[in-house]
Amino acid sequence: MKAVVIRNHGRGVEAWKLVDRPDLAPGPSQVLVRVRAASLNFRDLLIARGHFGGPIKNDLIPLPDGAGEIMALGEGVTRWKVGDRVAGSYFQTWRAGPLRADYFQHMLGAGSTDGMLAQVVALPETGVVRIPSHLSYEEAATLPCAGLAAWNALMEPSPRQRPGAAVLILGTGGVSIFAVQLALAAGLRVIATSSSADKIERLRGLGVTDIINYREMPEWQFEVLRLTKGEGVDQVIEVGGGGTLAQSLEAVKSGGTVSLIGHLTGTESQINPFPILFKAVRLEGVVVGSIQSFEEMSRALEELALRPVIDKIFPLHHASEALARMEAATHFGKIVVRVD
Fold first, then answer.
1. Is the same domain home to 121 and 6?
2. Terminal CA-CA length for the chain
3. Of 53, 56, 68, 302, which residue is most buried, by most CB within 10 angstroms?
4. 241 is in which domain, residue-wise?
5. Residue 53 confidence (pLDDT)
6. In a domain, 186, yes or no
7. pLDDT given at position 264
8. Angle subtended at Cα 254 by Cα 250 and Cα 260, rounded to the nearest 5 degrees
9. Dihedral sign, CA of 64, 65, 71, 72?
């Protein structure tokens, strides 16, 4: 079978290599999945650069996000049948409940656990989730990380944001566009940021009316305050990290929430704790989500008939070009590799 592996760890776009690997057979309680598509996240670029904490095994297969159909069942498998359409879960052992440190030992596409950028993968029967019936494999491959992170931030809190609440969403990458779609579907007011005229028009096409060009307004937090009559937003979907977190804390209202999902602008930052303290801001880290949350999201997406936004699809033999597009940061939505 064909697979992409990380053979030049630390070389960025040059780290990925397409190779032939031995055919797989499912072990006890495993399912064999014929992968049809996989998608990229910023963390996959960090791993290729050697900037994602911890060592990785030799010839690791990257990407936690992939979808396909079950082609064989291991001994003792009862919950699936051949032909079922599934996606792998980002955390293979996080069934439900709060996050625990040991779950990170079983992240797909990191450490010693192979990911989904291969024609065939073997996964525990408990580590796959049924995908929405209305989605293509390419669309479903975008769900396990970015889709679930956005869902976890917006739809999992109890109580959720009520219709009419204002949400600030930074950028137009995979998590951000999922968050835009989910927020609009929930009746929330979306304020979005971008620096590209083309991306701004695409945001308008999704239904966003309040958009800030952060190149023209680098102190965009003040424009957020103006748009909310000085009050601030109820929630910020913060994907920038060190370079934007201080501004997000200024843009959120008293008693609001800043959901920290990514660190696209880096990890180094000096944060003034006063806005958190005196505005009683809830600052939360969002690390994807559990298998149970994935199942709930899949059911909801099917009910809403919501379709993920795909930026571009690359064939498997051009997978490194997909990684280069991630590095260029010109994408709108998700970058996908079709696994032929």
1. yes
2. 10
3. 68
4. 149-285
5. 73
6. yes
7. 57
8. 55
9. positive
Q: Are residues 131 and 153 in the same domain?
A: no
Instruction: Give the Cα separation of 3 and 339 in Å (integer).
Output: 9
pLDDT in tens, 277-325: 889 999 999 999 999 999 999 999 999 999 999 999 999 999 999 999 9
Q: Could you tell me if residue 293 is inside a domain?
A: no
Instruction: Give the model's pLDDT for residue 263.
Output: 61
Q: Do 37 and 113 fall within a single domain?
A: yes
pLDDT in the model for residue 267: 54
Residue with tokens 């099917």: 302
Residue 17 has a pLDDT of: 97
- Residue ranges in the chain whose pLDDT is less than 50: none
